[in-house]
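Before a computer can learn anything about folding, someone has to put a protein's shape into writing. The three-dimensional part falls to structure tokens, numbers that each stand for a local backbone shape. The protein below has been through that process, and both of its lines are reproduced in full.
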Amino acid sequence: MGREIEIKFPVDNEEKLVSRLLALGAQKMSEGLEHNIVFDNGDIRKRGILLRLRKTPSGKNVLTIKTTIRKKEFKEANEIEIEVSDFAKAKEILTGLGYEIWWIYEKEKTKYVLGGTAIDIDRLPFGKFMEIEGSEAGIRSAIAKLGLDTKKGIKETYLELYQKYCKDKGIDEMENLVFWKKAKRTF
């Protein structure tokens, strides 16, 4: 089981952030729409387990099971991921096993690497965020190079941030978080 360590920051000026990343020597790895389906069977979410099927901008399909273990300086989670060759068939297998689609969310993602640490700029319908993921030392180094304050970092998941957004805006029923007009596709 792998360990995921990450922290997010809100992005106010994406152009300035990208310029800073490139000036620091970050390499752009991919860009595009990321599609995520979160599954539940009435039990796993109650136990704090995320079961997700993801289609990445680079064309990979990834099945993930994740449990958050700590939210102190950074968010840490135990994570197991496998690449699957066929997104639609993987979804069919999961629903055939009794899992239901609980939530769908999309991100317009640009992925960079800075000194071995992943830095993603994620654009969601409710805001822009930079996610820094890697080792604790790598994350601290990226934060220092970017002149950020760890105390202003966000440790919540996008689901938790979206739930807070809906509550703040008086939205009673949380909907799927998708860019329907961005592309024609079937799920």
Summary: The CA atoms of residues 114 and 142 lie 7 Å apart. The first strand starts at residue 2 and ends at 10. The mean pLDDT is 91. Strands lie at 2-10, 27-40, 49-55, 61-71, 75-84, 100-114, 117-124, 127-133.
